[in-house]
């Protein structure tokens, strides 16, 4: 699985997803909706779950990471 970077776009309620190659170059893979203003994020130890804190309220949302996409 390539290295990935997840960027919270708080005002747009989205998360942008970038692949990182061996030279450190970022390639945007897409965006996904993240209602509530995505804030702090953490990838689970299994690298299959992205936990996202919501700025709009005390909440955490879990997203499944699909290594194929």
Question: How would you characterize the overall build of this protein?
Answer:
- With 69 residues, the chain is mainly β.
- It contains no helices and six strands.
- It has a three-stranded antiparallel β-sheet, with no helix packed on it.
Summarize it.
The protein is mainly β and 69 residues long. Helices cover 0% and strands 58% of the residues.
For this entry, give a set of tags.
69 residues; three-stranded antiparallel sheet; 6 strands; mainly beta
Outline the fold blueprint.
Blueprint: E1 3-9, E2 14-20, E3 26-33, E4 38-43, E5 49-54, E6 59-64
Antiparallel strand pairs: 1-2, 2-3, 4-5, 5-6
Measure the end-to-end span.
10 Å
Give unreliable regions as ranges.
none
Quaternary structure annotation: single chain
What portion of residues belong to β-strands?
over 45%
Radius of gyration: 12 Å
Structural class comes to mainly beta
